[in-house]
Amino acid sequence: MRIPMVDLERLDDELKVIVQKWQALGGDPNFIRTFGRLPDTLKSFLRFYSPLVRKGLIEFRTKELVRLRLAQLNECHY
Which residues of 30-63 are buried (b: 16+ CB within 10 A; e: fewer)? Predict the structure, then answer.
């Protein structure tokens, strides 16, 4: 069973802005479209998660390479 994604037009205004910024950086909006069904929960998660990814002692590129390698090791196709 798959969770249907929310159309970009149906996201609330705050999430639309987040999607626009993310796409401008070359990001894929599917994560936000998938979890956009619970906008308040998604926004809380993003406030928690974004600083972990974007800030800290380890540069973003290294964190992204680790994420990609973990996905590969776990045979994650997304």
Answer: ebbbebbeeeeebeeebeeeeeeeeeeeeeeeee
User: Does the model's pTM come out above 0.85?
Assistant: no
Q: Is the pLDDT of residue 67 over 80?
A: yes
Q: Which residue has the tokens 């929310």?
A: 6
What is the count of structural domains for the chain? Answer: 1
Angle at CA of residue 2, ends 9 and 5, nearest 5°: 5
Structural domain contains residue 2: no
1 part of a folded domain:
no
